[in-house]
Amino acid sequence: MTLSVFQCNDCDHTLFPARYLCPSCGGADWRSVPIPQGIVSEATVVRQRVGQPNAAPLYLASVISMAGPIVIARSGAALHAGDVVNLTIDAAGAILASRI
């Protein structure tokens, strides 16, 4: 499933995640805007997690969506700043980034 961000129908302000009221104009009417791609701005890897001593590394990235908002996404491999990625949502609702 493709990730979507939210755009105010009154002023076109775009954000993620959704809010009740637009921080720009106070409007409460939103439309969903699909964002299939983004550009990695920062990336990191979590090598150790509390309570999971043998867990596989967890790759995370801050991705600037093509619509503007920044989202935090998981990845199956290390990503680097400047990488162009596809953005999807898995069955559990996690945002996933995969290098193009």
Brief descriptors of the model:
100 residues; mainly beta; OB fold (Dihydrolipoamide Acetyltransferase, E2P); 5-stranded antiparallel sheet; 3-stranded antiparallel sheet; 8 strands; 47% strand; ChsH2 rubredoxin-like zinc ribbon domain-containing protein; NA-bd_OB-fold; ChsH2_Znr
- Per CATH, the class reads Mainly Beta
Number of helices: 0
Percentage of residues in helical conformation:
under 10%
**Radius of gyration, CA atoms, in whole angstroms:** 15 Å
Residue-averaged pLDDT: 94
Can you name the CATH architecture? Beta Barrel
Largest sheet composition: 5 strands, antiparallel
Amount of beta strand: over 45%
Strand order of the largest sheet: 6-5-4-7-8
**CATH fold description:** OB fold (Dihydrolipoamide Acetyltransferase, E2P)
Number of strands: 8
Uncertain runs are: none
Number of domain units: 1
Structural class: mainly beta
Query: Secondary-structure element order, as H and E?
Result: EEEEEEEE
Task: Please give a structural write-up.
It is a single chain. By secondary structure, the chain is an all-beta fold. It has one domain (4-99): OB fold (Dihydrolipoamide Acetyltransferase, E2P), CATH 2.40.50.840. Helices cover 0% and strands 47% of the residues. The protein has a five-stranded antiparallel sheet with strand order 6-5-4-7-8, with no helix packed on it. Strands 2-1-3 form a three-stranded antiparallel sheet, with no helix packed on it. It is elongated.
